[in-house]
Structures are given as C-alpha cells and as structure tokens.
Amino acid sequence: MKREQTKRRIQEAAWQLFRENGYQDTTTRHIAEHAEVAAGTVFSHFPTKLDLLKAGFSQQIDHVLTEANSDCPESCPKEKLMHFAGYLYAFYCLEADFSKELFRVLIWQQEEFEKQLEAFRQHLFSHEASYDQHRAAVMMDCYFMTLITGLNADKPDATLMLNQLEKKLDVLQ
C-alpha cells in the first residue's frame, strides 16, 4: 500500500513538473524533491524519466477516455471517433505547448501504446457486424494527422481540428 502511494506521488509530481517546466527541463532530482522522496526511490519505481512520462501520459489519456465513455453514442465508428476526438483534442489543446513537446518525445514510443490503440480501434467497431482492421487503422491515421497538424497551428483549436477530422473521415465513407 505504501509503495503504491509513493509511486502515485512520484507520478503526480512528475506530471505536474512536466506540465509546468516541460519534459526536457524537468530532472528526476526535481521530481524526487517535489514528491518528497530520495532520488533513488524515483528509479525504484520508474527506471527512466521517459517511463515516468509514458506512465503519466497513459494515466491522463485513461481519464479522458473514461469521461468520454460516460456519454459515448452507440453508433457507427466514424461517430464514435468524432465523439472521442472531441474530448481528446480539447485535452491536447488545453495545453498545446506541452502537448507538442509530449508528442515530440512519445512519437517514437508508439509500440508502447499499441495495445491501448488496438483496444480503442476495436471499440470504435463494437456495434458493427465485423471489425475492419484496415479501415480502423486509416481512421486512426486521420485522427493523428489532424491532431499533429492542429497542434502545430499558431492557435490550436479543437473545434477546427474536429471539422478537419470529419472531412477526412467523410472521404473514407
């Protein structure tokens, strides 16, 4: 129990400092100080700073998806993706600079999140007669292209990103 509390405290401190100072400018020593633990304790829970970032990112996305699931329509894959994208794009746009940095670091860690992505792709097709793996992959590519393009705008706008995603998805229909 105490070990889990310490781990959670480290993860929360890391995520807060990453958001405030950026990933590059946050050291594991700062995280340890903020979590009120020894530097070695951080590494006993998370082997690297990148592992802390991945754990925090995964936890944040899980929270957003849980919220989005609470009122998810039982509809076609496109409508489901649009629903979830509304929540996710808003999350990323809320702190666009941090989100850009986050993706810059995590873009090469995609295999780490493949299990979550595959579960999400299958969820999009949960009310379909069959799971169309290729269509799901293309839909997610559209989602990520729109996200990355939108975050690189001067003023990222979740509504504009949603409109652009919808146009891309309409081409797939």
From TrEMBL:
Keywords: DNA-binding, Transcription, Transcription regulation. This is TetR/AcrR family transcriptional regulator. It comes from the Bacteria. Gene3D superfamilies: Tetracycline Repressor, domain 2. Signal peptide: none annotated. Residues 4-64 form the HTH tetR-type domain. InterPro entries: DNA-bd_HTH_TetR-type_CS, Homeodomain-like_sf, HTH-type_TetR-like_transc_reg, HTH_TetR. Residues 27-46 bind DNA. It comes from Photobacterium arenosum. SUPFAM superfamilies: Homeodomain-like. Pfam families: TetR_N (PF00440).
